[in-house]
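Researcher: Sequence of OSTM1 protein follows. Predict its structure.
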Amino acid sequence: NSSESHNCAKSILTSDRLQIVVTLSEFFNETWEAANCANCLKNNSEGLSNSTEEFLDLFNKSLTCFEHNLQGQAIDLSPNNYTEVCKNCNETYTKLNDLYNHLQRMNRRGGESAHSAHLCIDVEDAMNITRKLWSRTFNCSLPCSDTVPVIAVSSFILFLPIVFYLSSFLHSKQKKRILILPKRIQSNANLVNIQEKYS
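Model: Prediction complete. Tokens:
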């Protein structure tokens, strides 16, 4: 009955003492928002966004690469010797890591999903799993591209006090103390001493 739709909804949703329908609805809505699920979807929520599909595709390729390079070698490898995995999967992992960083930057500006803040929980969990496998399990590492600028800035900051004191020393005028001899007659006390000697 359209004329009593509000009362009808109220009687159906809140008829029981626990209000189970309302409680479940609130739980699912809060979980959806806390997990930022909308950030993985297109604006109209018809499906996964292109960037999310691209990320999940690269994620699956990375896991397949890890698995493929470990197959048949797991018995031979010591716990810290996964050089084949690091060497063969480096390109795939680097692409995945770069895409994740790009998605984070894009998401902060309100990307495809038009929602800001964090990426959806599926993407974040997938990247966390991959990073743990890459760094902790396989002991692989990516070369840090920021090493040269960090060393340059650190060196500059370390040399600043030296430059400051050196320039301060060179540019300040060294004042030498010049003793000016008095051009007056000796004091009376000296004359009295001379007179006492002769008397």
